[in-house]
Write a structure and sequence with these properties.
Length: about 260
């Protein structure tokens, strides 16, 4: 059965999508059959792997609204052991649609739709990585309910922990009412600029707050991360020898070690 991990932070610009793409690709390189789910209406994880809207007929919106079977939305990428369910702007309307369904049908579980669909394919993968949008709306709650654990990317800059309490409260809410097995896989420090003192101060602050939940791997701020998505490639394919590739390879190994598989 796949280990399902969501990358969540309602704060934007923390390297969440970059980490979703590159962790998924790194897990694939480690021999793990991996599915990346783009659960952000911006669709950046999809374009970051070289997909455009003309490349697919179905997306994650069609899956969770029941318009198509989940298997029909899965696309095998050209990268090792990596498939993706893409996203489009259609997903932006799911909150309104699910609230409407719930008002019409009291038995409709608006936060459980993704979980129900993933049950059909969990046995086909080692890891399912979910890239969530920067909000705590219905699609993100669907991800939390469906997941075994969450990775929280935290940017190594001032106000890094801003909003974290709200996110943790949402995780506790899900644990209490909808998914008692959900746990924090780890906190991932991203965008470290080694030339500034503030980055080191943030690392110390985050480690003090989350203790052993913080991954040893720290993702550096590098130009290569900006270049790779424009070529539709994860960093380990775009620049196999870069520090960025090594960082995500190390992160993948940490994730595998933490899960004992």
């Amino acid at each position: 059965m796949a280990k399902i991990i969501s990358l969540v932070n309602q704060k934007g610009g923390v390297g969440k999508t970059t980490s979703s793409i590159n962790l998924s690709a790194a897990l694939g390189k480690e021999g793990k059959k991996t599915l990346l789910i783009d659960l952000d209406p911006q669709g950046n994880a999809s374009t970051g792997l070289g997909l455009s809207n003309s490349d697919f007929a179905n997306d994650i919106y069609d899956v969770i609204t029941g318009e198509c079977e989940i298997k029909k939305a899965i696309i095998k990428t050209k990268f090792t052991n990596l498939s993706i369910i893409p996203s489009t702007i259609n997903l932006a309307g799911v909150d309104v649609e699910f609230v409407k369904k719930m008002l019409e049908d009291s038995s409709f579980k608006q936060n459980h739709q993704l979980k129900e669909k993933l049950e059909e394919i969990k046995d086909k993968y080692d890891y399912i990585i979910i890239d969530c949008q920067p909000s705590l709306g219905i699609s993100t709650m669907n991800a939390l309910v469906a997941s075994d654990s969450v990775i929280i990317p935290v940017q190594c800059e001032y106000f890094a922990l801003e909003g974290i309490t709200q996110l943790l409260n949402s995780i506790i809410l899900v644990q209490s009412n909808m998914n008692q097995d959900l746990r924090i896989e780890g906190v991932l420090l991203t965008m470290l600029d080694g030339r500034t003192n503030i980055g080191l101060e943030v690392i110390e602050e985050v480690r003090k707050y989350f203790k052993n939940k913080v991954f040893n791997t720290i993702i550096p701020r590098l130009v290569r991360f900006v270049e790779a998505p424009s070529h539709g490639k994860p960093i380990n394919d775009y620049d196999p020898t870069s520090k960025a590739t090594l960082a995500y390879a190390n992160l993948a190994k940490e994730v595998i070690e933490r899960n004992g598989n």
